[in-house]
Predict the structure.
Amino acid sequence: MPEKTKNLVIVESPAKARTIEKYLGRDYTVRSSFGHIRDLPKKGLNVDIEHSFTPNYEVNPDKKKVVSELKKIAKTSDKVWLASDEDREGEAIAWHLTQTLGLNPKDTKRIAFHEITKPAIEFAIKHPREVNLPLVDAYQARRVLDRLVGYELSPVLWKKVRAGLSAGRVQSVGVRLIVDREREIREFKATSSYKVTATFNVAKQELKAELIDKLPTKETASDFLGAAKTAAFKIVNISKKPGLRNPGAPFTTSTLQQEAARRLSYSVKQTMTLAQRLYEAGYITYMRTDSTTISSLAINDAENYIIKTFGEQYHKRRQFKTKNESAQEAHEAIRPTDFTKRSAGSDKQQEKLYQLIWQRALASQMSEARTERTEITINLSDRSERLLAKGEVLQFDGFMKVYGTPKDDTLLPVVEQNQILDLDTMTATETFNHPSARYSEATLVRKLEELGIGRPSTYATTISTIQSRGYIEKCDIEGVERTIQVLKLHNGVITDQPSTEITGADRAKLIPTSAAEVTTDFLVKYFPDIVDYNFTAHVESDFDKIANGQLQWVNMIENFYKSFHTLVDKSETASRSEVSQARQLGNDPNTNKPILARYGRYGPMLQRGEADKDSTDKPDFAPLPTGTTLEDVTLEQALEMFRLPRLIGKTEQGDDIYANIGRYGPYIKVGTTFVSIKNADPLKLTLGEARILYKEKLDKDLNKYIAEFPGGIKVVNGPYGPYITDGKKNAKIPHGTDPVKLTKTDAQELLAKAPTKRRRPRRITKKR
């Protein structure tokens, strides 16, 4: 018989369980459900459309043992407490537990807390409630809607665009945002103007000023510098104004993701993983929130710490109002559970994120920073234009003592009204306007939140999904060199000195692939609602209404599905050629066949000639040149690609060496041997370079096998170290064992103990 338990507390994660167990006495047993114990099975729709969209939940195969153990303990417990997180997902976990473990809802205690501290847990135990069914309904609506979209729309994409693609309510909108921004950048035409700066000598100090308005052309810039040669420069106004800088609100999920990216270079996913660990260890409040408010108790704790550590003048009590009208304010903003703890976390990355959260929350309760801003206006005799010199001095750091101060004060030399200035140099530099910036993970999060699409808790998963599905690549972008004109006036002489600058360089930006562009265009045409920003935000609003008990979830799904399923049927009429976005570049001058840039089964490609059922003359295909897209590849670039495969020459043994580009990049081929040439251009690779690469490959293959035994057993030098294989199973070689000394018997014994290779299931597309 299992030992009787007075109180069983079930939480989602083992780390959370360990922390809570420290605060509860012997009468409480804490166990983890390891997240959701049941869900919609991955295969099939598992939603009964004919019977009110009833979801068919099943216990996850990897959770059967967990469920069995929880059932045993629950049966012998006087009370069961469900302590999952206080949001829709957490409420759903609690509800699934009641359903799966056969718990009586009236006898089961539902508790929640936004921080894992002893006072918060004791308060929750004293104030239990029942499972909030409207919150569960909102979760079910989202789960069912997303399954309907994924199950019915993804197969359409497999047939019309490419196998392996997927679509989703939030991910498809995220992809569209990135595609639209990239196209905006491509179509952008930069225009130039001239920025004029001047340096004056004032009592052996420099006074730097800038022309208030840029000049439109080189001619106007040259004319202005010409006038400046003989002009008198006089100070016509000195303005000094006090300035204030206010601290930001404590972090919400999205602002934490953005600031961690800006200050720590953390990805959205990395930030959420680290924050989860800090929360489960009891160091911060719950990290999935869109509220900027913090409790009065926390405000009092911050006040005591600030006054004791920095002094009364550094404190200012604040309560921030959440700007987002649709915010789910079930939690506080993200803050430390203990303001006196300046450092926390089990590794350096956690420590840095904790410090950022600590700084932001504490700064929100501190005084404004006070500055003095000075502006000096300078005129030129006989000209209407004005130069402006700006300076700022920090007079009281306030919240910046904790959250950081500007790099340097901009100090200006002492000057007087009507003072005549001595010009040292004046420079007119050509500048160009810029297109809107590409999205980074953090700025995409900000845009999604601004549009009301998705929830902060889902952004990390969404961004990860669109990258893993091959829609988006996170790239560093190399800029291009551009010539700019620079005019300089010094000692009465104007010089024209062209210079260069790098433009367009960027790092860690989200770039759409051809699959993203083709898929987005297809969805915009056939499923406009799915990628419509307002519609997607409206769906989130409906989920909120369901959570508040204002809307029945089945009614919401019925209304959505009527129009959505009609669009699925309509999309069947789309032809693959239409979806492929074929663009004719021109004709091959040698064959007069049309050259097309189009999207094919394996991605973007070039095609020479057109398929004709009655002709034996089939089209030729070639990959797109590196760095081009379907929209910008030229005929000249395409013709070069049809020179592949290119015969470079012969090996020293007389075998032909061909260069080509395949699905995995450029390569050379000798007989049946393929050698990756990575970033080399197959059209420019020399015979000498090819022979060296081929020889290196042969040498590597020669050293591949450490030993070979009868029966196909081999000891292989793999990329991650030596291992044993018989072609069906692989076996690790124990640490400290010399692979050279292994016998056939040793190898057979290790193979016998090794797990069998898991086969990858074949993808089968069912005809509907």
